[in-house]
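Hi Y.,

Following your request, here is the sequence exactly as I used it, all 273 residues.
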Amino acid sequence: MTVTKKDIMETIKKSGLAKKCVCAHASLKSFGEIKGGADAVVAAFLESGCTLMAPAFSYSDYAVMPTEEYKYKRNGADYGNLWWIKHGNKAVYTQDSNAIDLKDMGRLPEAVLNTEGRVRGDHPLCSFAATGPYAAELIKSQKPLDVYAPLRELALFEGCIVLIGVGLTKLTAIHLAEQMAGRNMFIRWANGPDGKVIPAECGGDSDGFENLKPYAAQAEKKAACGQSQWRIFDTGKLLKSAARAIIMQPQITHCAKKDCLRCNDMTAGGPLI
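Below is the corresponding structure, written out as C-alpha cells. Let me know if you'd prefer a different format.
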C-alpha cells in the first residue's frame, strides 16, 4: 500500500490537527511506501493549515570541547571521554545553517529545514525548526540556555505533539517535563558568534521514557495512516502529567542500566551550576 499526501491530510483532519501547531517526531518507514517521502508529509501539514515543528539537532557539526569554567559537576559527562566531539572544531552555528544529525533526526526535520521560509532556533546543538503560519512565534525564544522554549510556546498555542511510528524515547517534550520538575538540563558546548566557547543546555538519556507510558496516556489519542501508527498528545496536558510523575518518582526516567552516568546525574537533579 502506498500512502499519499491526500491520505496524510485525511488523517490530519480526522485527528483534529488541521490548523494547529504540531511538533512531529517521525519514522517515515512506518508508513511503508510513501509517495513523495518527507516532502509529502511536510506539504500535507502545511496544506492542512498547520504550523509544523521538529527537532533538528546538530551535535556532530557544532559540539566542541569545554573550557574549565563549564565543566560542571553532575553533568552527565565523562570529561576524559567526550567521544561525540570533533576535536578542534572551529565551526560557528547560525540559524541559516541546514546542518543536521540526519541519522538521529531523520528525514522529516531535514525536509522542514529545506522548506522555503522555515525558521530555526538560536541553539547550536539542539535547535528546533518550524514552517507555517506561526513558525516564528514558536521558535523565537529558543536560546543556548533555553533549549526547550519552542515546546513551551507550543503548549501556549494549545498545540500537539505527534509521534509518527516512534515511541516515547523520541518524545523530546519529556525533557522539558524534567525541567519543570526542577531538574537542571545538562550543559554541552559550542562556539559562540565570536568563536569563544559557550554553554548550551541539552537533554539527557531518553531510553527510560517508556516508563512514563501510563502518565503520557492521560494526554494521548491515537490514529493511523496506512501502516503508520500515530500517537497524538496535547502538549500542555502531557507536560503537566509527566512533570508530576517525575516529581513523585524521580527514578521513573532512569534507563535499564544502573550505572548509566547520564541517568544517575539527571535523576539526582542535573548539573550543579
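The CA atoms of residues 52 and 254 lie 30 Å apart.

Thanks again,
Q.
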